[in-house]
Recover the amino acids of this structure.
C-alpha cells in the first residue's frame, strides 16, 4: 500500500526504509529537500493516489499540532493520520476529535526501537478505532519485528501513547536499578571484576534483559565508565509517567526515584543540599567543628561533635 | 570428578541431578533418608575417595555455621568447602579463615536459577582463591548454562555472595518497575487490554527481559491477578543490599523503595498511616469534615474544608 | 472596612468571626440561609456600600470558576476579588486576566490555620499586584496572627496559592517523617514508652515543632493509635506539588514518597504487590515453598528455598 | 552531687558549665590539660569522693570502648557510668553487661541540643534501669531545659541511644522536606521573595518548627544560599536509622530518601548516572542526536529523536 511519511529524521528515515523493504510505497516529506521525496506537504499528499490516503506524522511533539492542522485541509473523509512521535497521550483525544469533525481517522502510535529498529523491527503500541487500525495494519506489519510480538492495539485514542509512556517510565526504573547495582559492586572491596559479573548475568539469572546486554556492551568499551559524563538527560515520557501516576493515585516510587536521580544529575549545583548544609551550620556548629583542628577528635580531647 | 552435596531440598536436589548429567559423581546427604545418598555427614565424606575432597553446602543460612564446623573435623588440608546457599557475604571471610587454619579451602558461590536451573543451567557467582576455583571448575561447568555466560569468579572471599546479593537487589527494583507500570496501565481508562500490551513488549522494546516474559505468563493465567494475594515477601538479600549500600555510602533509591513497598505489603495494618491520620485529625478537623453531611460541599454552603 | 465573604463553611465562618473581631464589616453569603448574611450573591454585593467593593471567595475549587464569573457582572472597575480557597495556582492567572479585562483586581490567597485559626490567626500567602494587596491589607491584618509573621506578599498572580501548595507539600513530608520514626520506636524491643519519648522531644531537640505537639496530643488520647484507621487521605496540594516539581525539574523524593505512602494506604488491595507476588510464583516456586511442610527447613533436609 | 565528665570538647565543655550552674560539682577530664580538671582518668576518679561515683563519658564513638574498659578497673560496685556520646545503641547492651559483671551500673543517654544546649538546656533520652536513672536524676535535671519536657527514661539499655538515633533520622527527613520546598519556590517564576515566604511561615502555619526558624536565619544571612557548598554531610545516626528500619521491617521511605540525597551530594561524580548515560548511548543514539545540528529539530526536518 501507499503511505505518506512526514519527518525523515533518525527515526523517520529508518522507518521509511523498513516500510519499503516490506513492499510498500512511501512518499516521505522532510523540510530538508536532500532527503525528501516531495516538495512540500501538499505535494506529498498529492502523490498518494491509491484509495484512502494514510499519512504518518513522525515529528517532535512541538510540531505535531501545526502539521495535523495543515493536513486537515489536504485530506478527505475516510483518510487517516497516524501520530507516531513521542506525543503526550492527552493530545490524542483532541486530535481525534479535530479530525473526526472532518471525517478523517486518527491513530496514535507509540514506537520503540531506536537505532535498532531498522534491522530488528519497531515495537508499536496503537490507540484508536479498530477499523482504522485494520486499514493501516499492513504498514504496522512491515514495521514490527518478525515475531508474534511487538505490536498491540492498546485501546482507545491515547492508549498507544499512554502505553509507550508507561514503557518508558518502566525503562527509567530498570536502568536505575542496574545503575545502583553497578555502583554498589564498584564500591565493594571484595569484588575485582565488575564487568565480568555483569557479563555473567546474561544467562541463567533472574535479571537478564536487553538492557543488561547493553550495559555489558558499555562496560566492554569502558570498564569503569571513566569516559562518560555523569549527567542523565530525561525526555518527556518519564515526567509524564509520574504526573499521570499522581493524577490517577498510583504509587510509583521507583519510577519517581529514577526521574529525580536524573534531575539531580542535571543540576550544576544541588540547591536542596545547600539548604541542608545551611541548616546544619545553624543548629550545630557543624561548620565550627569543621574549622577546628583535627586533634580535638582524639580521645580525652574529644567531646561529641554532633550532639545536636 | 567426585563431590559431596549437603542439602537436597528443592535447589540441592535439582543441582545433584544436573551435576550428574554433567558426568560427575555426587554423594548427596540430606537428613531425609529417602532422598539421601549417605547415612550421615561422616558417611558422605567417607564415600569421597578420589583426590582432594570437595563438599558443596546447600543449606539455609541458619544451618551453615554448624555444618561447616562439623566438616572441619572430617576434612583434611587441601580439601575444599563451597557455600552455595543464600548466605550473607560477611560470613564468608569468617568461614574462609576458620578453614584456612586447617588448610582447607573455601569458596562462596551465589546461585541463581530457581526451578528453571535444572533445565537451563544455574548462574554462578564465585568468591575465593583462583586455585580453589580451578579445582571445582568441572562442577561449575556442569551447573552453569551451556553458553559463554552464567559463571564468574567475582573476586575474593565474599565476592560471590556479594554479587548474588546485588543481583537480587537489582531484581527487587526491576520487579517493582514492571509492577508500577502494570498498575498504571490498569488504571488508565483509554487502555483496554493490559496483558496484550505486556505481551507485545516481548520483542522490539527497550524493556524486554526474562522478568517481562514471566509477567506475561502470569497475566495469561490470571489477566487481572485477581487470584493473587497482595503480599510480597522479601528474603534476606534485599535487606542486605540496602544495608550494604548504606554502609558503603551508595544511594540506592529504587532498591530501597522496592524493599519498603514489600514491607508495607506484609503489614496487617500500616502504623505510619495511622499516625498521619491522627495528625490530620488534630490539626484540621479533617475528621470533623468527614462527619459533616455531603451537602456542605455544594456551592455557597461550602467553605474550605482543608484550609490547614 | 467592608468585605463580602462567599462561603461560610468551617473556614469561612470562622474567618468572618475573626475579621469582625478586627473591627471590620463582613457581609457573608452562603447558600445555607441560616448562616448567611445575605439572600444571594447579588444581595451580598449590594450591601457593600463603601468605596471599592472587596469580595473574598472561600469555596472548594470546583465552585470558584462559576462564582468568579457571576461576580464579574456584579462588580465594577476598581473592585477586587480574592480567591482564598485551596485553588490550584495555575487557575489564578486565568482569573486575573478574566477580571483585568473588566478593570477588576484579583488576589490569590493561600490560607493556613485550620480550626486553630480563629483563635491564633491564619497564615496568609498572597499573590497579585502590590496596589491590590495594599487595599485589602486591613483585612489581612485582622486575619493573620498577632505577631510579625504569618503574612506574605509572595509574588505575582498565582504566587500565593503556589506558596500554600508548597507549604502543604512540605507538610506531607514532615508528617511522614514523624510517622516513620514513631513506627520504628514502636517496633524496638528496648523502648518501653513511645508517647513519653515524643513528649520529651517538645523541648531542647532539633525536631520540635507544632506538628510534634499535635503528635503528642494524639498519643495522649490513644497511646498506640489503636482507634485510628490506617488510611491517610490526600488533598489536591500534595499531588500538585509533585506535579509542579516534575514540570520544573526539581527532585522532591521525600514529598513524593509521602504522597505515595498515602496512595498505598487508600488502596483496598495493592495491585503492584500482586504483580510482585505473581512474578515470584513464576520464577521461583516461592509458592511451592510456601506450600511445603515447615520441616523441610531443618538442617540436612533443607536446600536453598530462595535460590532464584 | 559530684560527677566525673570525660571529654570536654564542644559538647562536654558546655555541659560541664551547665551542670555546675545547676549547683553540682564536676571533675572534668580531657587529654588537653589546658581545659582539664584532672591529670588523667585515674585522677578524675580519685577526686570523686562522695558516695557512689558517677562518670559521664562524652566521647566520639571510637573511643568509648577503651574508656569504659579503663574505668571498669577504677570503679567499684554501685558506681555508674553514663555513655552520653552518639554511640550506637547496639553497643549499650554490651557495655551494660560488661559493667554488670563488676556490679557497676550503666546508662546510655542520647543528648540533643548542640551549641544551643548551654543556654536552653539539652534534651536527654536515657536507657537503663530505673534505680540507676534515679541516682543520676539531679544531673539530668541540671542539663535538661527548664520545662516539663526534654527528658525521658526511654526504656532498657540501648533505648536512650535508639531514641536519639530515631530523633536524628526524623531530623534528616524534616530537613530534606524544607529543602525540597525551598528549591521548588526558588524555581517558580511567580514567586518573588522566598525568604519572606519562609519567614511568614513562622506563625499560624502547620509547618512551623525550630528547624524552620533556623532556615529563616540562614536565608537572612544569605537569601539564595550562594555562599553555601552543596554538600550535605551525614553522621552515623541517619545510616543507623535506615539499617535498623531494614532489620525491623519498617518502611522508612522519607528517611532513606533524605540519606541518599546526602550521599549523592557527597560524591564527586555520580557513578549511577554515568551508567544511565552509558545505557542511553547504547540503545538510542542519544549521543548521536546530541551531535546533530540543532536545525534537524525544526518541522519537516524532524523525526523522533527519542523513539527508543
Amino acid at each position: 500500500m501507499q503511505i505518506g511519511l512526514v519527518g525523515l529524521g533518525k527515526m523517520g528515515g529508518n522507518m521509511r526504509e523498513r516500510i519499503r523493504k516490506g513492499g510498500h510505497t512511501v512518499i516521505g516529506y522532510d523540510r530538508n529537500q536532500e532527503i525528501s521525496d516531495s516538495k512540500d506537504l501538499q505535494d506529498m499528499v498529492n502523490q498518494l493516489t491509491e484509495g484512502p490516503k494514510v499519512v504518518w506524522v513522525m515529528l517532535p511533539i512541538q510540531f505535531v499540532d501545526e502539521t495535523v492542522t495543515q493536513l486537515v485541509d489536504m485530506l478527505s473523509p475516510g483518510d487517516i493520520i497516524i501520530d507516531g512521535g513521542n506525543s503526550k497521550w492527552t493530545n490524542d483525544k483532541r486530535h481525534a476529535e479535530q479530525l473526526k469533525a472532518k471525517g478523517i481517522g486518527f491513530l496514535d502510535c507509540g514506537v520503540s526501537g531506536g537505532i535498532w529498529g531498522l534491522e530488528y523491527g519497531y515495537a508499536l503500541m496503537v490507540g484508536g478505532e479498530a477499523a482504522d487500525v485494520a486499514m493501516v495494519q499492513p504498514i504496522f506489519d512491515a514495521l514490527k519485528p518478525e515475531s508474534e510480538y511487538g505490536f498491540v492495539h492498546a485501546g482507545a485514542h491515547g492508549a498507544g501513547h499512554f502505553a509507550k509512556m508507561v514503557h518508558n517510565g518502566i525503562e527509567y526504573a530498570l536502568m536505575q536499578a542496574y545503575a545502583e547495582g553497578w555502583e554498589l559492586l564498584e564500591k565493594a572491596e571484595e569484588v575485582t571484576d565488575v564487568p565480568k559479573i555483569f557479563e555473567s548475568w546474561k544467562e541463567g539469572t533472574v535479571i537478564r534483559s536487553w538492557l543488561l546486554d547493553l550495559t555489558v556492551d558499555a562496560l566492554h568499551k569502558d570498564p569503569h565508565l571513566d569516559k562518560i559524563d555523569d549527567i542523565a538527560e530525561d525526555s518527556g515520557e518519564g515526567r509524564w509517567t509520574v504526573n499521570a501516576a499522581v493524577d490517577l493515585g498510583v504509587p510509583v516510587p521507583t519510577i519517581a526515584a529514577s526521574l529525580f536521580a536524573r534531575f539531580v544529575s542535571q543540576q550544576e549545583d544541588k540547591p536542596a543540599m545547600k539548604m541542608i548544609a545551611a541548616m546544619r551550620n545553624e543548629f550545630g556548629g557543624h561548620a565550627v567543628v569543621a574549622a577546628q583542628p583535627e586533634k580535638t577528635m582524639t580521645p580525652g580531647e574529644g567531646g561529641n561533635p554532633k550532639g545536636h
